[in-house]
Specification:
Elements lengths: L1 H25 L20 H38 L30 H4 L8
Helix pairs in contact: 1-2
Length: 126
């Protein structure tokens, strides 16, 4: 779940940067005026598109704040979990146990000059 939140946060940040760059290319940004000196909509800017993009950026900022809060809460829970583990003989919290690794293949033969030999892979003795 944590990884999904981080990926979504990264996605939102990227989308916000792209949308903001789009507004900057049009010369209006998030706060630039969409009307001219006489109060009419600017003719050099797609006003509807800018308003939609500004609204999208504002919604993405809200989503980003929520995701950041959830990530922070998950981090707090993770640290509390680590603190609650019984200490080891050294006094430090015990580390989570590593998964048991099992062989998934046996190598019968390694050819001379092959990448396997260069990696010093040894054949399985029967």
């Amino acid at each position: 779940m944590y990884k999904k939140l981080i990926n979504y946060k990264d996605y939102l940040e990227k989308e916000i940067r792209e949308a903001t760059a789009n507004l900057d290319r049009q010369g209006v940004g998030m706060k630039g005026s969409l009307v001219d000196d006489q109060g009419f909509p600017r003719g050099d800017v797609d006003v509807a598109s800018v308003r939609i993009t500004r609204n999208l950026i504002a919604r993405m900022h809200t989503d980003l704040e929520e995701i950041t809060k959830r990530i922070e809460e998950d981090m707090i829970q993770l640290h509390q979990l680590e603190k609650s583990r019984p200490p080891t003989e050294t006094g430090a919290p015990s580390a989570p146990s590593a998964p048991v690794m099992r062989a998934f293949a046996l190598v019968d033969e390694v050819s001379a000059g092959s990448p396997a030999q260069e990696a010093q892979l040894a054949g399985h003795a029967s």
